[in-house]
Design brief:
With about 650 residues, the chain is α+β, with helices and mostly antiparallel strands. The chain is built from 17 helices and 40 strands. The chain is about 25% helix and about 35% strand. A hairpin with a 2-residue loop joins strand 29 and strand 30. It is globular and about 80 Å long. About 45% of the residues are buried.
Length: about 650
């Protein structure tokens, strides 16, 4: 066994690998970009090496800098984690030249499975069922269009390289095909440096089922059962579980046989996952791809099998023979994982950024994360901040445990998908184990929306009774008290400058605080009982709300909501900062911080409503900014490659109807 391990990754997976490496007595080495200088994985490591600026292309995707860091620190092995360079043959080759152990499969497996076209050919040779499709050498648009018409619509246009949903477009109408091919090719080239595509028949109500494999260099090839990863958004997994619910035993056996057969065909010698699309009605399944790395969702497999896949992976990489046989691998109970991301699900999953001000996770959940209070979530990397995993004696126990753990999760500083994930777990379709990859569209065809909660009233109340320093007896009477007629209580009106029409009036009375908001009046008792706990009593029922005051912003978290409000009294409103982001249809503005990756218009151009004028990238997401009305471009205020802030003006239009 080697003595030192460099983890060529960041965030939660770097921390996850380090935890196992430390248990094994290995010296751990982190790498970091400018943006991650204070990150948790850097603090955990025995040594850390700076590898470049924040953009991944200049740091985590630089093979040369990863290898230089290994040389500098005397690293004997490199673990790539997932994403970044985990399936790039160049890093494997570099390790071989330097005599560094590569924690992953042999280079031929990575190359063959890294091309979906080549992988499909090998899968067919191994007898694995494959979706009807086209993966020919002729990659012209005309050839792809002809193939799609021959296969029959709907079809899926897919990038041959990479994964994670990049370069994929579902096409239901032939009229949309050519645009989908161009978009998929552009995204594939940008993401993987490979614009080759394949066309496959689209299975319209599929489940995503995958089998965990582990092989060694001594000929062993084992499976660790299957996972169901059907709940997805834009082909990105959201909820994952093991084992898959509602599968016939013969289907499971066939899945294991197909996956193990493919692994043996390529002499696979590490952790890997074979992914399948399964028809929920017939349980017929088809090869999708093989990921030649540790999966994001490996934790649910560890929970049901009682193994540490990273430990086994490291031992296999060191040349050890697997000490397990297939009949020694058992499945106990059920596990479900939720991927918590820094996104606002209430606003179409818009990525959020900022500093984590407070972070606390329910002890009954396993938490794989790369953050803590003080961590900064930026725009340069994936929005995943933590994986929350529950294990129970059966599926329903695990599901309820995870839902309750999400309700008890405390996070402030960035908006997360916490309440959305809880709601997804509680939907009937998921509860009975019948979720397909269309789950989100079926459950929330108009998009998920947060249940209405008057969070401003709670924020105003927290601010109203906040502990205040008492430098003199005069300050002790409270700076917000507005004396009215004799016998009437003091009262104050509060608002959030982002929604100045919503006012909250709080009056102090002997019975408590009389709160008027949104046309209703309630009497509540409230007190701070801990640094970040507000206890509110209404009609004899107490509830505890998390609250944190950062300057004059109140961050709140409750069972059903998260919110942040800037609170000012009505008398101070004229000095409050106003929200000045343009919503005018003649202005295209940045909806979030990010990078302008493409401008699809020019000065003087005539544009139609719905035309894409600019493309932005934020947290690895590509966002097309479209014209909301027809007009002529009269100004372009940015350039390709510029980093812009929320609300920045990008394109100015003169509207057609304004000319008439």
């Amino acid at each position: 066994m080697f003595d030192s391990l460099l983890i060529a990754n960041r965030g939660e997976i770097a921390c996850r690998i380090m935890r196992t490496a430390r248990k094994m007595g290995l010296r751990t080495i982190a790498v970091y970009s400018d943006a991650d200088a204070a990150a948790l994985h850097v603090q955990m490591a025995d040594h850390a090496v700076h590898i470049g600026p924040a953009p991944a292309a200049e740091s985590y995707l630089r093979t040369d800098r990863i290898l230089d860091a290994a040389r500098m620190t005397g690293a004997e092995a490199i673990h790539p984690g997932y994403g970044f360079l985990s399936e790039q043959a160049d890093l494997v080759h570099g390790c071989s030249k330097l005599g560094i152990t590569w924690v992953g499969p042999h280079i031929d497996a990575i190359r063959s499975m890294g091309s979906k076209i080549e992988a499909k050919k090998i899968a067919l040779e191994a007898g694995v069922p494959c979706i009807p499709g086209y993966s020919g050498e002729d990659q012209s648009d005309a050839a792809l269009v002809a193939a799609a018409h021959e296969i029959g619509f709907p079809v899926m246009v897919k990038a041959s390289a990479g994964g994670g949903g990049k370069g994929m477009r579902a096409v239901f109408d032939p009229i949309d095909l050519e645009a989908a091919i161009r978009a998929a090719r552009t995204e594939a080239t940008r993401s993987f440096g490979d614009g080759r595509l394949l066309i496959e028949k689209l299975i319209e109500n599929p489940r995503h089922i995958e089998v965990q494999l582990l092989g060694d260099t001594h000929g062993s090839m084992l499976h660790f059962f299957e996972r169901d990863c059907s709940v997805q958004r834009n082909h990105q997994k959201i909820l994952e579980e093991a084992p898959a619910p509602n599968l016939r035993q013969e289907t499971r056996a066939a899945l294991y046989s197909a996956a193990v057969g493919l692994g043996r065909k390529i002499g696979y010698d590490s952790t890997g996952t074979v992914e399948f699309i399964l028809d929920d009605e017939t349980e017929g399944f088809y090869f999708l791809e093989m990921n030649t790395r540790l999966q994001v969702e490996h934790a649910v497999t560890e929970e049901i099998c009682g193994v540490d896949l990273v430990d086994l992976q490291l031992r296999v990489a060191a040349g050890e023979k697997l000490s397990l046989s297939q009949d020694q691998i058992t499945c106990t109970g059920h596990a479900i994982e939720a991927r918590l991301t820094a996104e606002d699900a209430n606003k179409g999953f818009r990525p959020d950024t900022g500093k984590i001000l407070h972070w606390s996770v329910a002890s009954e959940l396993r938490t794989d994360s790369g953050i803590r209070a003080g961590s900064v979530v930026g725009t340069h990397y994936d929005s995943l901040i933590a994986k929350l995993i529950s294990h129970g004696r059966d599926r329903n126990t695990a599901r309820k445990k995870l839902a309750k753990g999400l309700e008890r999760l405390e996070v402030a500083g960035v908006t997360t998908t916490r309440t959305f994930l809880r709601d997804a777990l509680l939907r009937e379709r998921f509860a009975i184990g019948r979720a397909s990859t269309n789950f989100l569209a079926q459950e929330w065809p108009e998009g998920w929306q947060l249940a209405p909660v008057d969070s401003l009233a709670f924020a105003a109340l927290a601010w109203h009774i906040r502990p205040k320093p008492q430098a003199s007896p005069w300050q002790g009477v409270g700076g917000f008290r507005l004396l009215q007629k004799a016998g009437h209580p003091a009262q104050t009106t509060y608002l959030d400058p982002k929604d100045p029409e919503h006012r909250v009036r709080i009056a102090n009375t002997s019975e408590g605080f009389v709160i008027t908001s949104n046309g209703s009046t309630k009497t509540m008792q409230a007190e701070w009982n801990e640094a970040h706990r507000l206890t509110v009593t209404e009609d004899g029922i107490k509830q505890t709300i998390g609250a944190l005051i950062e300057e004059n912003t109140i961050h709140l978290w409750g069972q059903d909501f998260d919110a942040a409000h800037q609170i000012v009294s009505l008398g101070d409103y004229d000095t409050a900062e106003q929200d000045n982001h343009s919503e005018a249809p003649n202005q295209i503005t940045a909806p979030m911080p990010g990078l302008v990756v493409e401008l699809r218009t020019e000065l003087g151009a005539d544009v139609a409503e719905g035309d894409t004028l600019a493309v932005m990238e934020s947290m690895k997401l590509l966002l097309e900014l479209k014209a909301r009305a027809a007009g002529k471009v009269t100004g372009i205020q940015t350039e390709t490659g510029n980093t812009v802030e929320t609300g920045a003006l990008l394109v100015q239009l003169k509207l057609t109807n304004a000319e008439n």
